[in-house]
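Project standup — Tuesday

K.O.: blocked on the structure for the chain from last sprint. Re-posting the sequence here as requested.
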Amino acid sequence: MSSMEQLYQQVILDHARAPHGRGLVAAGPGAGESHQVNPTCGDEVTLRVEVADGRVAALSWEGEGCSISQASVSVLHDLVTGTPLDEVDALAAEFRELMGSRGAGLAADTEDRLGDATAFTGVAKYPARIKCALLGWAALQDALIRTGATAPAGTKEDA
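H.V.: unblocked you, prediction finished:
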């Protein structure tokens, strides 16, 4: 295992052991919630997001499953809390692109924006684990749609 792979593995283990944003927080107005299950392995996540002033004002979650799914939601929490919604959409697209890279990674500037989420580069080599890493991101997308602050993919009007 290369030193970079070891670093990535350590980031995932750290987030799985001490997850950020875990524990659902009472939601105020403008909040959305989504519960997602990965039917192939049984991993689950319930994610609650609150939007204010065009930003993710708060995000909390609860879940059960493998270290990859739980660490991915923890990293997602750190990456999107306080972030404008258009940047959240871009980050989600970049993370999906990373998961489709089959472990090859992305351009350095894209990986810089993804921060700790880049640790999942190695996960992209294993198709069965990709859904685990994307579970929280699917919950975030659904929860944001439920807030009414964003539209389902493919339904946004072109400006």
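K.O.: great, moving the ticket to review. The beta strands are 31-37, 44-52, 55-64. The mean pLDDT is 89.
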